[in-house]
Amino acid sequence: xxxxxxxxxxxxxxxxxxxxxxxxxxxxxxxxxxxxxxxxxxxxxxxxxxxxxxxxxxxxxxxxxxxxxxxxxxxxxxxxxxxxxxxxxxxxxxxxxxxxxxxxxxxxxxxxxxxxxxxxxxxxxxxxxxxxxxxxxxxxxxxxxxxxxxxxxxxxxxxxxxxxxxxxxxxxxxxxxxxxxxxxxxxxxxxxxxxxxxxxxxxxxxxxxxxxxxxxxxxxxxxxxxxxxxxxxxxxxxxxxxxxxxxxxxxxxxxxxxxxxxxxxxxxxxxxxxxxxxxxxxxxxxxxxxxxxxxxxxxxxxxxxxxxxxxxxxxxxxxxxxxxxxxxxxxxxxxxxxxxxxxxxxxxxxxxxxxxxxxxxxxxxxxxxxxxxxxxxxxxxxxxxxxxxxxxxxxxxxxxxxxxxxxxxxxxxxxxxxxxxxxxxxxxxxxxxxxxxxxxxxxxxxxxxxxxxxxxxxxxxxxxxxxxxxxxxxxx
Length: 476
Known about the structure:
The protein is of the alpha/beta class. The chain has 12 helices and 22 strands. The protein has a 6-stranded mixed beta sheet, sandwiched between helices. It has a 5-stranded mixed beta sheet with strand order 14-13-12-17-18, with helices on both faces. The chain is globular and about 85 Å long.
């Protein structure tokens, strides 16, 4: 059954709105667009009213282009100010001779979430839980795929529970309730993005996923196919833009454009680009800024991000388990030479993380960029969770047969015009004769009368409509 899913990535510098047509396992992205955001800092909503105004503009634009109405969306929860704790849960099974089911594992996870005592329940909320290991009567340290189908009188699980700000999620509800759009589901983005850009082999052998957003950089470490550690750094690409703005005394907008167009790490590897000088014509006399100087500004902040990233990898206790190296994703991953800088400073193998080819797209190449991974990841997760249709289509109104009338429409084929006079070719070109063709077409009957004479102006409009219908029929 065909349905549509809409997702919104609420970033500190942009909103990424994605709409996909889903039919079973087939996912086709039919819309993806990024628009500047407002009211969000470090992935937290700081001004719901400003964020709502920008979101409404983005949603209306998508609705107009696709000729749909978006009724509900899936969104990501904030990635910053997230604490991780360990929780346990246990159930005694009434029938140990029955196989342990996936439903029992999910029940165990729900128990862990519901029974974990939040330190400050008025200000904190559970964002999600990731199973680390399971124990049964005779075995311990089993993963989920191993424990399902076993026999045991009890089932015990250990979970990583992620805790976030209650006010941040309440702001999400406030924004979308005000737009009469339901929140179909809120996703914990690090795990969603990981399953969009990482391969099963990478997650099994050990990998660190670094998602560099505008306001926050997150570090997720996978080993044995499971997320073992998560941490967030409260700055990202926007900090680099801010450094360029301050050092060059220019606007945020211009600093962002310069960063995207000429920005790069490792100024010593710029080659001929380092000799270029940018002329900023906002003041008299013109301001000249060498590209190498911009690269030096960027390099300092980029190294700070990498240092923080490597600190948390060490803090996780799993630096030796990362056999597949580091994968960099998010908008900040597109910064020139950033992958080389991470490789140089860390010693790990490093690659960029793009959305894997688990979908098709009828939109531009932006949907395959590193900045689209969150929006695409939520679409794929919502498909697996079998969420309902997120949009409504306008109903096509059919005119009843009794309200239609037939018209005889005559079409005269006009003379073809030539670009050159016939004598230029040395012979005479005969002009084609006009052809007359008559066809009956049905059009809506004028309101208030059965005869056209009463409403000549309206009738002329009907005749024009009939001609257009006839022309279209001839083309087909």
